[in-house]
Specification:
One of its GO terms (molecular function) is nucleic acid binding. By secondary structure, the protein is mostly helical. The protein is built from 17 helices and four strands. Among the domains are: about 15-120; about 125-210, no CATH class; about 350-384, no CATH class.
């Protein structure tokens, strides 16, 4: 085939082993470039090499067996390099249209003359020299906790969320990973530091080292048996369920996920939603929130009724009725006259007054005329 005066051999037979070896060398060169502090020209060179590597791998025809396995490994490694390259390009150039970089043939071509772009704008360019200070200011570290199965996942999720919110490339994490570890985890990282080339590799090695052996075999069963507790809202239950599902190597099939959620929500919801056809967790959330609102209104109404009844009972007790007054009067006993119906203070019977010395009625001892005249009466004798 002739093109622009140059003849191309379109039926050339490629040597698979030689092609795979060449692709492996190109990939090693890309990895080496990614370890450097990059500027825009270098980014363009890497983009061109990755695009060439993708295209070259796609046209290599291999035999089943070792060649196929080698090609698959190279393809996976190439995609990891692309995954590592994209955020760095965004970070350094301020480009937010990642579709220009993600397509197989859409990498920017290499050029010998740097083109002016957002990287020259001091307002949008951020130096890698500030990455260490930024990462250190987060205060997020992992110390190698083996007691909590989810500590590794929580650490990785928090770091990734920080990077996404700040548009910080994951390659900066690999460069400054020592700032993210302490204690036992830091000792472990020093051992594997030279054998990892990306943050993704570090995360994979973290899970391999600090997750319990056989975790993925039991994590699925734990998720299927995760139940909503009495004090947990439906929103927090669904959020926690999604978080635990994200820690699985593969998400649950949707039908199995919905069945597990409906089986593990509170019995109050299950009793009222058993006949409803619910097609998504969002729909389940809305229905459960309506039930919560209904239960709240019922509780408020019942509380109002109880308060009203209590106030009425207190008012009735504070106002005695004639029957109550007469009943209380009948219950009073007078010890003087031995009768009921009145208190001793109001008893109509008065005791007879008489002198306890001589027994003369109408007088007490101190004014009794008879006792005064008797000899031997100290008070009467003195008066005589």
């Amino acid at each position: 085939m002739e093109r622009d005066g140059v003849w191309f051999e379109i039926d050339a037979v490629l040597n698979p082993d030689a092609e795979l070896e060449r692709c492996s060398l190109i990939l090693e060169g890309v990895r080496e470039l990614l370890t450097r502090v990059l500027d825009e020209p270098n980014l363009r060179v890497i983009a061109s090499k990755l695009a060439h590597l993708r295209k070259r791998l796609s046209r290599v025809t291999v035999e089943p067996g070792a060649q196929t396995e080698q090609k698959e490994k190279l393809s996976v490694s190439t995609e990891k390099a692309v995954e590592n390259f994209i955020p760095r390009a965004k970070y350094l150039t301020g480009t937010h249209h990642t579709s220009l970089l993600l397509g197989q043939g859409n990498f920017l071509p290499a050029t010998s003359t740097p083109q002016p772009g957002p990287v020259d704008d001091p307002l949008t360019f951020r130096s890698y020299r500030n990455a260490a200070q930024e990462i250190g200011s987060w205060g997020i570290t992992f110390g190698g906790d083996r007691k909590d199965d989810l500590a590794v996942f929580d650490f990785i999720v928090r770091i990734n969320e920080k990077c996404d919110s700040l548009d910080l490339p994951h390659d900066a994490l690999r460069r400054h990973a020592k700032l993210l570890f302490k204690g036992e985890a830091l000792i472990w990282f020093r051992m594997i530091e030279s054998s990892v080339s990306s943050w993704t590799d570090i995360c994979d090695r973290l899970k391999e080292e600090f997750l319990p052996i056989g975790y993925y075999n039991t994590a699925r069963d734990k998720l299927l048996n995760y139940r909503q507790t009495a004090g947990q809202t439906i929103g927090m239950f669904l959020a926690k369920f999604d978080q635990l599902e994200g820690y699985l190597p593969r998400p649950l099939p949707f039908d199995e996920k919905m069945a597990a959620i409906r089986r593990n929500i509170l019995p109050y919801y299950q009793d009222r939603l058993w006949d409803k056809e619910i097609v998504s967790p969002d729909e389940l959330y809305r229905l459960c929130r309506r039930l919560d609102a209904t239960r709240f209104n019922i509780d408020q109404h019942a509380a109002t009724q109880r308060n009203t009844k209590t106030a009425t009972n207190r008012a009735e007790k504070a106002t005695p009725t004639p029957d109550d007054a007469s009943s209380r009067s009948r219950d009073v006993f007078c010890p003087r006259c031995k009768n009921t119906g009145h208190d001793v203070r109001y008893c109509p019977s008065r005791p007879e007054i008489k002198c306890f010395g001589c027994g003369k009625p109408g007088y007490k001892n101190y004014n009794c005329p008879t006792c005064k005249l008797q000899p031997g009466n100290g008070r009467g004798g003195q008066r005589q």
